[in-house]
């Protein structure tokens, strides 16, 4: 697999992680404090995020985003862990050895 293919595989897996909120998502206390309608807006914004640029996606992995909802500035970030969530993944392009964790936070919680 070439480096470009490796990066493209990571990006596809990251897009899938963003599309499926659930066990792989961590919400910080600031995000957890949102009302249900606000939280639904925030989750929808993460799922629909497509504003990737050289500034927020320099490695092409689509693992970070920043956006605003209702006047609140938020960030999301995907990290790659081994299957035990103890160490970094040995290969983020291989879902058989990688668990993705998407952290959704208020900008001030960064």
Task: Describe the protein's architecture and organization.
The longest helix has 17 residues, at 3-19. A 4-stranded mixed beta sheet has the order 1-4-3-2. It is globular, with a radius of gyration of 14 Å. The protein has one domain (3-109). It is of the alpha+beta class and 110 residues long. A hairpin with a 2-residue loop joins β2 and β3. 31% of the residues lie in helices and 25% in strands.
What's the topology here?
Blueprint (H helix, E strand, L loop, with lengths): L2 H17 L5 E3 L1 H4 L3 H13 L15 E6 L2 E10 L17 E8 L4
Parallel strand pairs: 1-4
Antiparallel strand pairs: 2-3, 3-4
Low-confidence stretches: none
Spatial strand sequence of the major β-sheet: 1-4-3-2
**Structure annotation, total helices:** 3
Helix-strand pattern, N to C?
HEHHEEE
Task: State the end-to-end distance.
Answer: 34 Å
The secondary structure category is alpha+beta
Indicate the overall shape: globular
For the sheet with most strands, the description reads: 4 strands, mixed
Mean pLDDT: 96
Tell how many strands the DSSP assignment holds. Answer: 4
Total domain modules: 1
Proportion of helical residues: 25-40%
Rg, alpha carbons: 14 Å
Beta-strand share of residues: 15-25%
Protein name: DUF3768 domain-containing protein
InterPro entries: DUF3768
């Amino acid at each position: 697999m070439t480096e470009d293919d490796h990066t493209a595989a990571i990006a596809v897996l990251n897009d899938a992680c963003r599309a499926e909120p659930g066990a792989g998502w961590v919400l910080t206390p600031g995000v957890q404090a949102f009302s249900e309608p606000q939280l639904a807006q925030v989750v929808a914004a993460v799922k629909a995020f497509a504003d990737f640029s050289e500034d927020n996606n320099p490695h092409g992995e689509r693992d970070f985003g920043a956006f605003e909802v209702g006047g609140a500035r938020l960030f999301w970030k995907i990290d790659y862990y081994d299957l035990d969530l103890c160490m970094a993944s040995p290969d983020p392009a291989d879902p058989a050895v990688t668990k993705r964790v998407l952290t959704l936070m208020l900008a001030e919680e960064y």
